[in-house]
TraB
Amino acid sequence: MVRNTQQQDGLPAVTSYGSTFKAWAWHVTKPFVPPWAVAGVTGLAGGGANLLWQGSPWAGVGLTLGSVALTGATWAAGVKTGRQRRLHSAITVAAASAWTTAAAISGPLSGPLPDLYLMGGAVLALSWNIRRVLAAGMAETSGESADKGLMEKVGLARTLLKNVKVEPNKVTASYELPAGELTNDDLGKARDRIASALDVPTTAIRIQHDPDSARRGRIVIVPEDMLKTPTIWPGPYAPGESVEVPLRIGVYDDGADLVLPLLAAIHVLVMGMTGSGKTEGALDLLLELFTRRDVVVWLADAAKSGQDFQPLLPAMDWAALDTPSAAAMVAAVQAVIPARTAWLRDHGYRAWEAAAARRQTNPAHSCRKDGRACGCDGMAYLLAWFEEAAKLLRELGDDVFTGIAQEARSAGVSLVVSMQRASGYQLSTDTRASLPAAMCFGVKGDDASFALPEEVLDAGADPAAWGNKRKGYVYLVSAEVDEDLHATPARTFWTGPSGEYERMAEYVVKQFANVRAALDAVTAGAAEKAVGEFFTRRRERALGNQAASTSASEPTGDPLLDGLAEQESAQAVAALVDEEDQELDVTTDLDPVETDIALPAAKPSPEEARELLEDMVAMLAGVGPGTVAVKDLGPYLEQLGRDRSWVSKQMSRMASEGRLAPTAEQGVYRLVPVLAAA
């Protein structure tokens, strides 16, 4: 498949499939080349034989006998083939050998030999081409064309394959299992054996079950991986259009566009192991989003401080690049949902649509009671992206996104949660159920079951076969994406070598600066009310994180950046101090507290004190609501032989080790199952 390319200002001209056109053309013509190649070899053989044996009667006798013997051998060898094919082969060999003998004795250019060669050779070659076309057509329409030996070999005897359709690098066949003996599940279990029998990768076999039958469906075989060569991002798919238009992010293995219909997908889980290409997929999505006219992006990346997204930060309305800012973004998203829903309701929208992003001049979408157009400013779509969300989930709890995912459907808000492994220990079952779309890159073992539905895995989806060896390979499951494509491998676009991505990002950020929407007053007001300066100073905080990532200890020379970096460092330290400890002098021990607990005669060693603290934490959380605060340990400080600041540090250590989980309230931790079991 060949795609048109465009030359965009500042962006290098690239093509999606120009690099594979030659391979595709060769696959199409290759089956028809052999007869013509044989005709060419015959001409060369006649000319070469003439140079050796021109005018030699003995050579003529030998060549004649050889022609007869070769024709007879061909006839004998074709005894197990069809009669027509046997006769066709013998006639072809007889004609070719007779011409070669005559050319050797008389010369290939003497008498009628040149005309016989050109006309006879072309006719014979075309006859074999026609035979191949007819054979393919018969295989496509014949109900008895199945390779029964293959089905018997893999333990599926009496399975009928029919309506076989052969395309370049793709074979499709309908199957019908014997009634009462086998089911679609049995065929799915035999997929690996079918791949072995055909000597192709397991990902090359896809099984599409008929939803109306337990024993019928289709088998799709794609023997050659056409995704090995990455495709460079070809530029915007729908520049200046609404986010309602799907986002093009890659290609399927048959050359079709890989598109994500965001408004149908609503919320997306992006999962894949380190090195599998999640970042490339994220960049593809963001590059597309930043060329649309009615969408605003909030991005949280506390794990890597936005390391992979630096060139795109200017196009984002909010980039939360540390844990406090990311937690504030979660709270802000929770707060803006009811505000946005109320605005849509008041303007007569049951759900967000492109018209909601424009000025409201339609009386049908007016918030006025007199029925006249209200003229209110529109409200852009909001995408909240949480990159490497596992860290945030550990800090805030595995159900932090549940409410957002369940309530944001009608508010014009999409949630993207990106993580390496969406297991039940990291992402709650309720949250996972509320993320209807998934992009699953390479994973380990059975981890694909955390992202892909069971029916997609049964159909042949196997991201564990890639791991991190096929960067960018992905399965996309979403509403408004053909179900037959859910188990079809695809590959996201490549943003190019070092330096190329920066050029692409700069092009998108600058070229579409006047196209992108600004955040509406309704969303901004709700976010400011919920998180205050975390929102109003969001750009300064992001700038401070950029400065901090540039140099953690050395000044940049820019007073603004250096000041922001110092402020960010101070805020990060302050975030680790409990609210009730803000005025505490950590160099002074607290006064002893009266307690009924028997105190040890001597001060516990550091190891003994840590063990005692862990027992106390488990006890307090076990008899309470499942949480424990630093202040709860006040009555036991003397028994521990330590002050309050030591307790606060030890509980922070236990949280960093995953034994306690911080909550939204400073200084309060939630007991995790590991410590509870201990």
Remarks:
- The longest strand covers residues 160-167.
- The two ends are 60 Å apart (CA to CA).
